[in-house]
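Protocol step 4 of 5: obtain the predicted structure for the target chain.
Materials: sequence only (see below). No template structures provided, no constraints applied. The aim of this step is simply to have a reference model before the mutagenesis design in step 5. Sequence pasted as it appears in the construct record:
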Amino acid sequence: MTELRNVKRLPYFVYFTTALGLGLAGLISSVYLAVSHYRVHTDITYRSFCAISNSFNCDTVSQSPFSVFIGLPVAVWGGIGYVGITLLIAAAGLSEAKNKRIWSLVFIFALIFSLTSLLLAGVSTYKVGSYCIVCIVTYAVNLALLYLAWVIRKRFGCEPLLV
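Step 4 output (structure tokens):
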């Protein structure tokens, strides 16, 4: 057990840049999904790269009634969320923000994103009957952000959101 305590930890910058990269990856995926959603609904000849089969078909998912929430494509909502969380993570890069509550806020948003991912995966499985590969990438990004925010909070002694 004492051997684990002597392991040299990675510097904060490594965790920070990984989290920032995940936020940007989620944003890029959401932008692609939003453009794909628009094209599926406006261009009859459009076929996304992930329209592989009946089971794995982003176009089928985009055409389902579950792909729109409160009048906007779910991908647009995801893009808005990723802009927000990426800006939060960027703010955490400031030296005075390293151990502050910002990582607790990132953790809460990542938890909401991850729970939403589970809900959307269930809808895709049980209601739509088809999977979107890029959506699955965003689910992985959300879970990775959740885990990373948790690790950063524990490893660097970040303050809780509510005191």
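Step 4 remarks: Residues 20 and 90 are 7 Å apart (CA to CA). The helical segments are 2-5, 12-42, 58-63, 74-92, 102-128, 133-155.
Proceed to step 5.
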